[in-house]
Amino acid sequence: MVTIPFGNFNPVEGIVGMLPSEYRLYLESMMPSMNEKPIGDEYFTDEMRDQIKDQVLYKYSVGENIKDMNPPGTQNLPDFSKGLISESDYDTERNTMGISDPSSLTGFNQLFNTLGSYQYEMVPDDKGGGTINVTDRYDWNPDYGEFTTGVDEEGTGDYGYVGAGGTDVTTSMLLNQLYRQFILGDKYRDFDMANTLELLGNYFGQKESEGEGRDVKFSFPVTQEEIEDYVPKKEEEGDENRGPGGGGSSVSGQAGKVVMGNQVVQSPQQETERIRGVLDARRRGANIGFSAGGLASINDVIGVL
Fold first, then answer.
1. What letters, b where the CB count within 10 A reaches 16 and e where it falls short, cover 239-267?
2. How far apart are CA 285 and CA 278, in angstroms?
3. Across-strand partners of 155?
4. Secondary structure of 68-82 in the HEC alphabet?
5. Measured between alpha carbons, how far is 121 from 110 in angstroms, rounded to an integer?
6. Is residue 120 part of a domain?
7. Of 41-45, 127-131, 250-254, where does mean pLDDT reach its minimum?
8. Are 134 and 292 in contact (CB under 8 A)?
9. Where are the alpha helices (DSSP H) in 77-211?
10. What is the pLDDT of residues 139-185, one digit of tens each?
11. What integer pLDDT is reported at residue 271 of this predicted model?
C-alpha cells in the first residue's frame, strides 16, 4: 500500500481551485477551512475586470456630467465616485446583455455569478488616471421561506428567496426543493437550476446569521485614456462640439442639456433628481438576497429578465 504524503496540501481545495471562479467561490463557501479567507483579484479574469471597469466608469461619467452641468459649488449633488453596482448597472452601452449569458449553467454571466452586486470607489490620481477599488462580503443571508400566491398569500409549496421575514434554509426546505426538482422533474415544472443552487449554498455555506463569510477586496488601475473614453476631456471654451468617447455620458456643447449615451435630457436638475431617486431605491434594496451576489443572488433578478 502506497501512502501519498499530502502534508499541508488539501487535495479537495486543490481540485476546486482549478474550477472557474464562480464555481470555485460557490464550493469554497461550503468549506469551513475557507471561512474568513480574503477574496482578492486572483478570482477575477482580465475580461471580468474589464466588465467592472466598464460598469464603474460608465456610472462615474454620469456624476461627472451632472457636476459639469451645474454651477460650481452646487450642493447636494449625487456622488458617483463611489457607491453600489447593482444588477441593473451591468447593463451598459458596451454590454447590452447586462447580467445575462444564455450559454452559462445558470443563465447569468461569469462576473455576476462570481461577484453579483458590489461596492466600488473610483479614485483619480494626479496624472489623469486612477484606481478602482472593489469591496464586498461573500456570505449567505437568512432570507428564505415558502413562496405565496400573492393573491391570498396561500403557500405554493415551493421554497426560495423571500427577503424580509425569511430564515436560513432548513432541512425541510431543501428536501422539498430536491424532491420537486429531481423526483417530480418535468412532470412538475422546468428544472430550476438557479433556485436549487441557491438553497444548497445557503444550507451548506457560510451564513451571515452566524457571522461567517469572506471579505472581497481588490483594486486595479485605470489609465487616463480609459477614463476619457467615458468622461471626455474638456475642450477650451468656444469649441462647439465635445462628443462622447466610447460609451459614457458627455456634454455636446449644448448649454442646459445632459447627454447620457444617445439620450438628451433637457434639464440637468431634473436628471439629478431622477438619479437621486434611483440611488435611493437601490440603497433600500442593497442587502436583498445574497449580499455579495454570486451564484446565490440570481433569484433576485429573475423577475427583471
1. eeebebbebbbbbeeeeeebbbeeeebee
2. 11
3. 148
4. HCCCCCCCCCCCCCE
5. 22
6. yes
7. 250-254
8. no
9. 110-114, 171-178, 193-204
10. 999 989 888 876 666 777 788 888 888 999 999 999 988 888 777 76
11. 54
Check whether residue 131 and residue 221 sit in a common domain.
Answer: yes
Helix (H) or strand (E) holding 12: helix 11-16
Q: Is 191 helix (H, G, I), strand (E, B) or coil?
A: coil
| Mean pLDDT (the chain, rounded) | 76
| Element holding 49 (H helix, E strand) | helix 46-68
**Cell 438576497 sits on residue:** 289
Q: What is the pTM of this model?
A: 0.68
221: containing domain? 21-35+43-139+213-231+244-301
CB atoms within 10 A of CB 199: 25
**C-alpha angle with apex 127: 125 to 130, nearest 5 degrees?**
35
Does one domain contain both 166 and 28? Answer: no
